[in-house]
């Protein structure tokens, strides 16, 4: 069996949903499991419903926008709308109920997960209307997680057991399910982190021992640079798992960082294919060796540089480093680049305001703390002489580091 994943951009208009159906149809009548994201910017809209400071008016406006967006898609796609309206309205009623219940991350997950439910229901009904043997699956009955809301940790053993009955279903049907969602042992919904649908697809592929996972994107494949920043990047025909995993670590957002590992562990190839032109070869990420990879350039925006200085004319000690790392691990913050000097330790992290404010508060108990925000971390993996020089001389470099294969510069 195979797994396909379609993201929100591939599902944002009725035309695109028709195109999704045609890709599915040209592929198979069975043995295909399709993971879908929420349509367009639905997840952002759902986030506004649970924003801590959301006014009643903001909530009502967001709800109205959410309904109109999905209803317009339904009107454009279906002649007989009764079944799909009933299914979508049941989900809307749940949202309206759940935004009033509980608070914090738990409430977030109950509400924000609903975008994938709506989208999968619409795609499922559309495939049925095209006489395809679609079977709608609630992914939460398969993907078991712990109770870490907004960042559910997968229980792999339970998930592997949960997916077993699907094998029989897949013999006769195309299974349509949601990305991004899981379920706690208590039956509450969890989400797997923003953009987590790729990861969901990898979890299904791994648990079902799929022959491959195909992620359909609006790019020609995995490229050595972001096409929005570079006019003509190179599209890789194939990439080793390790190379692809490192790219995502440095911030390349073509695939969610957690996607590669479960596939690599089971040797399942990941195909990144172009949604608009499925005849393009795309990129195959699998166990292979590729000689002489070109320099790979990754820009990671919204970075923050924090420097901790000792105040008593001593040098930075291991004990003081311990204090810094303890604060970082308490707040679950990952360092993207770090450097120490005689009297200070500097590190670069993603700028998430509330976490950064907490971190600075903790560090100020022991250090003089300085910070800069709005920075970009540029990573050049497999650099050559030309790219090395070019990026070292980038204007506004605040921190720079290189190994034998990778150069990183943090710039204003
Ligand atoms: N809908 C979720 C998000 O926008 C998950 C995903 O699309 O991958 O983050």
TrEMBL record:
Pfam families: AA_kinase. It comes from Chryseolinea lacunae. Belongs to the aspartokinase family. Keywords: Amino-acid biosynthesis, ATP-binding, Kinase, Nucleotide-binding, Transferase. InterPro entries: AceGlu_kinase-like_sf, Asp/Glu/Uridylate_kinase, Asp_kinase, AsparK_Bifunc_asparK/hSer_DH. It comes from the Bacteria. Its EC number is 2.7.2.4. Residues 2-274 form the Aspartate/glutamate/uridylate kinase domain. This is Aspartokinase. The keyword Nucleotide-binding applies. Pathway: Amino-acid biosynthesis; L-threonine biosynthesis; L-threonine from L-aspartate: step 1/5; Amino-acid biosynthesis; L-lysine biosynthesis via DAP pathway; (S)-tetrahydrodipicolinate from L-aspartate: step 1/4; Amino-acid biosynthesis; L-methionine biosynthesis via de novo pathway; L-homoserine from L-aspartate: step 1/3. It catalyses: L-aspartate + ATP = 4-phospho-L-aspartate + ADP. GO terms for molecular function: aspartate kinase activity. The keyword Nucleotide-binding applies.
